[in-house]
Amino acid sequence: MTNIRLTDMAERLTTFVTSISLFLLGAGLMVVFAKGAAGRKLLSAGLLLLILSPVLRVGETGILFWRQKDRKYALISLLVLFMMIAGYASGVVAK
Amino acid sequence: MAMETVVLEGICGLAAGVFGAITGLGGGVILVPLLVSALHVPVLKAVSASMVAVIATSMGASVTYLRQGLTDVRLGMALELTTVAGAVGGAFLAGWVVSDLLELLFAVFLFYTAFSLFRSRREQDRKGEEGDYSPGHYHNLPAGLFFSGLAGVLSALLGIGGGIIKVPVMHRLMGLSFRRAVATSSFMIGITAAAGALVYWGRGQIDPLVAAPVAIGVYAGARSGAKLMPHLPVKFVRWLFAAVALYMALVMLRKGVSGLL
Question: How many domains does chain A have?
Answer without folding.
Answer: 1
